[in-house]
Amino acid sequence: MDLSLFLLKVIMNWFSRLLKKTFRWCSSTVASPKIETSFVILDNHQATYQATLRLIKQGCRKIKMVAYNSSLHHMNERIRGYSDAMTEENLQEYICVEKVENQKEEMSTRMDEIIQKEETEAIVFATNTLSIAGLYAIQRNNIHIPDDLLVIGFDGNEAFDFFSPPITYIEQPLMDIGKKSGSCGSSAHQRFGTKNSG
After folding, report:
1. N or C: which terminal CB in the chain sees fewer CB atoms within 10 Å?
2. Using CA atoms, how far apart are residues 96 and 145, in angstroms rounded to an integer?
3. Residues 6+ apart with CB under 8 A from 132
4. Which position has the higher pLDDT, 49 or 19?
5. DSSP class of 166
């Protein structure tokens, strides 16, 4: 190993240890079981679980979830919540997670493909950006909510109010998360429930 690489590793190791001793890290956006940190987040599993159950109780069976093609923990938890609700209600044959890339052109094309599938009764979108992209595709394809398709979005957006009735979405309690994360210590782990809107 050459000397400069060795010195770089020594400095990085020292800096990493210094950060652990000096700062308290608290994530208020995502948590990962691989990173030792405090976190204050939405209970992503429970949020999509409850949203999916809501659609099932409204008579939907062929419910899709649209999520990013990502290995992020919160995305996997949202997918797991959807899948668990479908399985619990004996609808595992209808489980369909459509994964899209986070690129505008590809997302638009994939949304059109997903929306045009006739067997879909409802869609749970895993993020706000996916919800908006899906709503654009719904409009382009002349599909009417809630007559042709039921939708639950994530995080809400003013655009959701332009639909009649307004789009239902999973709302993260951002004020509560912000307050809690501002005071969290090294052992604080908090998951918040959700408040369904619409």
Report:
1. N
2. 20
3. 157, 159
4. 49
5. P
- 62-to-31, 70, 176 alpha-carbon distances in Å: 30, 23, 34
Cα–Cα distance, 26 to 34 (Å, whole number): 14
By DSSP bridging, strand 195-197 and strand 63-68 are unpaired
Q: How far is CA 124 from CA 5, 121, 160, 190, in A?
A: 48, 11, 14, 24
- The answer to whether 61 and 93 are in contact (CB under 8 A) is no
Q: Is 98 helix (H, G, I), strand (E, B) or coil?
A: strand
User: At 101, phi and psi to the nearest 5?
Assistant: -85, 155
Nearest alpha-carbon partner for 85 in 176, 139, 152: 152
- Can you state the percent helix, strand and coil of the chain, rounding each to 5? 45, 20, 35
User: Which residue, among 81, 64, 182, 37, has the nearest Cα to 134 in the 3D structure?
Assistant: 64
The two three-digit tokens of residue 40, written as one number: 């204050």
145-165: burial string, b at 16+ Cβ within 10 Å, e else: beeebbbbbbbbbeebeebee
Amino acid in position 42: L
Band (pLDDT 50/70/90 cuts) for residue 19 is low
pLDDT digits (tens, 9 = 90+) for 53-68: 999 999 999 999 999 9
How long is the chain? 198
